[in-house]
Amino acid sequence: MDGTVAAVLSAGEMTKVRALVKGGTLDAAIDKDFALGQTYRVNQTPTTVFHCKGQTYPYSGVMTYDILKTFLEQLLSQK
Amino acid sequence: MMQSSPFNLRRAIIWIGRLVLAGIFIYAGYAKLTMGMHPRPPLGVALSFFALQVDSYQMLPVWAVKFVANTLPFAEIALGLLLLFGFGLRIWATLITLLIVGFFAAVLRAYLLHMQINCGCFTTPEPVSLKKIFEDGALAALAILMTVFAFIEARKPHPWSAPEKA
Fold first, then answer.
1. Residue in B37, B66, B116 nearest the CB of A60
2. What are the sequence ranges of the domains in chain A?
3. pLDDT tens string B85-120
4. DSSP state letter for B161
5. How many angstroms separate the CA atoms of B53 and B118, rounded?
6. Which of B63, B71, B120, B147 could form a disulfide bond with B93, CB atoms 3.0-4.6 angstroms apart?
7. How far apart are CA B88 and CA B111, in angstroms?
8. Is B59 on the interface with A (CB under 8 A)?
9. Are the beta carbons of A57 and B44 separated by less than 8 Å?
10. B9 within 8 A of B67, measured Cβ to Cβ
11. 3-state secondary structure (DSSP) of residue B98
C-alpha cells in the first residue's frame, strides 16, 4: 500500500500521509464514514446518495449525464 | 379421467404461475412507482430514478432507457392484473415470459461483467449476485412452464364442459 501511494505523491506529501497514518487520527474519520455508509445500506462502489427535501435516494452504478440531469431536474422541481 | 380432471399437474402449475408471477409483477410495478417511501415521491422523481437504474445496466441508448423507465412499471402492473384475471391467458403469459427472460438475461450479463449495480427490481437495493440470478432463473422457468402448459391446455376441452356426443 505504502509503495503504491508513494508512486503517485511527492516526497513531502508522502511524509505528511505517513504522519497522518501513524498518528491514528484518520481512524475516527474512517469509522464515521463507514457508519454513514451502513445507514444508507451502501454495499458497492460507486454509490451516490442524493438528498432532497427530506428524502434520500441511494444509487449504485455509473450514470449517463442526460439521465442524471433529468433526475436532478425532477428532484428540484418538486413542490 | 386424469386429463379431464380440473386438478391435473399442468393446471396446478398454470395456477401457481399466475398467482406467483402476477403478485410479483404487480408488486414490482407498484414498488417502482412508490419507491417504498412515505410519503410517496412525485411520479416524475420515481420514474427518473428508475431510469437511472435501467441506465446502470449500460445496455440501452438514452432514448430507450427513458422509454423503458416510463413504461415498464405501468406495464408490469397491467400485465400482472391481466395474468391474474386470466382472460387471454396465453397472450399475457407469453408477454410476461418474454419480459422475465429479458430481465434474467440482463441480470446475468451484469453479473458476468462484474458490474457493481443494484438489480432495480423492487424498492430495496439488491446487488446483482448469484442469488439474484437463481431467483430470476427460477421465475423464468416457472413462466416458461406456465406458458407452455397454457398453450397445451387450450387445445383440450374445458374440464367442466359437457362431454362430446359420439
1. B116
2. 1-39, 43-79
3. 988 899 999 999 999 999 999 999 999 999 888 888
4. S
5. 7
6. B147
7. 35
8. no
9. no
10. no
11. helix
